[in-house]
Amino acid sequence: xxxxxxxxxxxxxxxxxxxxxxxxxxxxxxxxxxxxxxxxxxxxxxxxxxxxxxxxxxxxxxxxxxxxxxxxxxxxxxxxxxxxxxxxxxxxxxxxxxxxxxxxxxxxxxxxxxxxxxxxxxxxxxxxxxxxxxxxxxxxxxxxxxxxxxxxxxxxxxxxxxxxxxxxxxxxxxxxxxxxxxxxxxxxxxxxxxxxxxxxxxxxxxxxxxxxxxxxxxxxxxxxxxxxxxxxxxxxxxxxxxxxxxxxxxxxxxxxxxxxxxxxxxxxxxxxxxxxxxxxxxxxxxxxxxxxxxxxxxxxxxxxxxxxxxxxxxxxxxxxxxxxxx
Length: 326
Prior knowledge:
This protein is of the alpha+beta class.
């Protein structure tokens, strides 16, 4: 099933054999197991606004998992937040496991194996959840931060995580309603920023000796991001360290200097596209502003990072803005 931006397509089945395919159409490739043949029901409803995909899912007790072979098959590199609304679930990833009750939520990464075990509510044996999916770059979390945050239960009943939980649930309720106003890309960016801030606030203080150096390198990259010629050599010189040491610092964060520069450039371009709703600037102008000297290179990198071309992304935002105005 194709998910088109600004529209939601409900899907329901009573056939266990169709369920894995339905989940794949809405999310990523998944294996489903421990299903009962009798009394099965499953439904997914999803919608996409800009780069954020929002879905509601409900079914009966089962296990789902994402294996290395499925990851190689579709290579979808997304970050997802799953929030339980009924029943409970146990989530496993990165050698951690957590239990989710009603209102709790968890971050997981589609580029590495994970598993969910769902148990239905005692009253009727069903569970439901809401799933929020971002391209990895849109949440601006480092690889190390992601690995520290996956399969960690966030309390949906108290503290700042409860605030985020209520906000996400309201967003999902709005997006799933038939008469919802179409959200703009700017609002979706605010959602991502809030998720980033609250998830990061839960991390324990990192005492790694190179953490401050990594942050200083990021600051130097951001200062020079518009320069097409910015390089690891220049960043290392600004920090008075060797290029080899700079590469080691980024390797500790499970990334590279070049990849970080590209992703931060792309995110600035994407935010400019969102802000420029009147299309006053061309994609060439926006990409050159942030250090891309070739439009074709920028377009390929953007599609690889966000799943759509920058031209399609802009046209979708324009259509949504027109709908909202009408």
